[in-house]
Amino acid sequence: MKITSILVVDDDENDQFICEYTIRKFDPSIRVTKAFDGTEALDALRTDTPDAIILDINMPVMNGFEFLDRYAEEFEVHAPVVAMLTSSHLGKDRERALQYSFVKSYFEKPLAADHLRVMTDLLEG
Q1: Within 13 Å, how many C-alpha atoms sit on residue 78's CB side?
Q2: What is the residue range of 92's domain?
Q3: Which phi and psi (to 5°) does residue 62 adopt?
């Protein structure tokens, strides 16, 4: 199964641009939806469940971990692949993120085609 839709959750417009550019280069048929914080992401998820979510940790309003807590509480059906994409090099952030059963990957910015290949493999897995 290939990825047909991705929700990118990141407060930085430059990172959003890089993600969308990389995704479009990887597969132009993938539908990209953007949210600039966890609250916007939850709103988007109330109307659509994408194949994958790419999530930053450090964001205003609702950070990535707050989003994961709310996502786990509020939604019974989760996106097949949730991947953290962050500039955090802290092992404790990686460990914390991977404690959620639906978080499948943890990548360091910027998004690369290799990350998307891993996400595709996980979806097919």
Answers
A1: 20
A2: 5-124
A3: -145, 115
Q: Which strands make up the sheet holding 52-55, listed edge to edge?
A: 31-35, 5-9, 52-55, 81-86, 103-108
Which residue is associated with the tokens 């460990």? 95
**Per-residue confidence in pLDDT tens, the chain, 125 aa:** 799 999 999 999 999 999 999 999 999 999 999 999 999 999 999 999 999 999 999 999 999 999 999 999 999 889 999 999 999 888 999 999 999 999 999 999 999 999 999 999 998 87
Query: How many independent structural domains does the chain possess?
Result: 1
Among 10, 11, 13, 50, which Cα is nearest to 32's? Answer: 50
CATH number at 66 reads 3.40.50.2300
Separation CA 101–CA 24 (nearest Å): 28
Q: Is the dihedral of CA 18, 112, 59, 41 positive or negative?
A: positive
Q: Are 88 and 58 contacting, i.e. CB atoms less than 8 angstroms apart?
A: yes
